[in-house]
Amino acid sequence: MLVRMFYTSCRNMTRAKNFALLVLCLLIAGILIFNTSSASSDDTNKEYSMVAENDSMVVCFENFDDTRKLIFDAGYNDVDQDASSDTVIYFVTPTYPRREQAAEITRLGQTLMHVPNLHWIVADDTESCNPFLNQLLKKFGIPYTHIASPMPVFYRTRKLVPRGVANRRAALSWIRNNNKKTGVLYFGDDDNTFDLKLFSEIRTTKKVSMFPVGLIGDYAVSTPIVSNGKVQGFFDSWPAKRKWPVDMAGFAVNLEYMALSSNVTMPYKAGYEEDEFLKSIGLKMQDIEPKANNCTEILVWHTQTKNNKPPKIRISSGALQNDKVNLGTLLRQLESMGVSHISQSEGTAAQITKDGKSKSLLSWFS
Description:
Elements: H1 2-16, H2 19-53, E1 58-63, H3 77-82, E2 89-95, H4 101-112, E3 118-124, H5 131-138, E4 144-148, H6 153-156, H7 165-177, E5 184-187, E6 193-194, H8 197-202, E7 208-210, E8 213-214, E9 221-227, E10 230-235, E11 251-254, H9 255-258, H10 273-280, E12 288-290, H11 292-295, E13 300-301, E14 312-314, H12 317-321, H13 327-337, E15 341-343, E16 348-349, E17 351-354, E18 357-360, H14 361-365
Parallel strand pairs: 2-3, 2-5, 3-4, 7-12, 14-15, 14-16
Antiparallel strand pairs: 1-4, 5-11, 6-13, 7-11, 8-9, 9-10, 17-18
């Protein structure tokens, strides 16, 4: 718009034969055109950079207040000792919508409620923020960041889908964007099981700590091999020529150490996420700190909930809208969690059972 105004002024000066002002006018117009072009080029480069990465993320909500103070007075020895440390654990949980999501986040959240000085980064594989998930996270009282970080569509069509990568990359971006250079990073899936002792141990990580993970592969465990207090190799049933054949839940990283590497990343390469991430931070064997009593204890288990398709329940609108009965409220809540679906024409017919006899809800409400 500004360039167009100068062009009109210059044209009027030409008609008036004021050549001195004409030269000055053309000079200013040239500068404006150059600056506009440069700005446009910069914007294009930024846009290209974002598209090239194929990643997108939205920070849905953040809460830095810790409302769990009374829990730490419960008398659990490991928690009491752990509370003396100021080192923050950044606990990264990739998650995705499914019928088990609310149950697994609840189980994990009630474990993390007992861990002081922890910031929970929950990255959800969704295009937009899930308000139900946010309400669930809020009730635990844990300082947290809720991110919507969908997997790029391109990777969803692959034979081996790199699940959780977009989520963890988003968490790494959040750490980088917020200049977090002190503390300990740990990747903890929502279907894993954690001993509270694990958090006391990883909090002292100076570079990279490692420890066994139970229920992994054909060996039922993935662990470093430790001799004389030093890691000598790895015991994992799927080596796959990986330099670091470890499970995602089997290591923790000091953020100050990670900040020394400028190209920290995690690739969209199923099965090699841990290996490439640890390579990107420049890990050397002598940097590894074995935890869990020289890797003789299992403090984290790779438990997995079997994923089932959400069932469809056929139920009358009368039953759903009857405020005097709990069923409508309960089923609508389950639908919001993705646990089940409600239909008036499809699915398993809803019944009520009393004194050993079952009958249709429709007849019960009529």
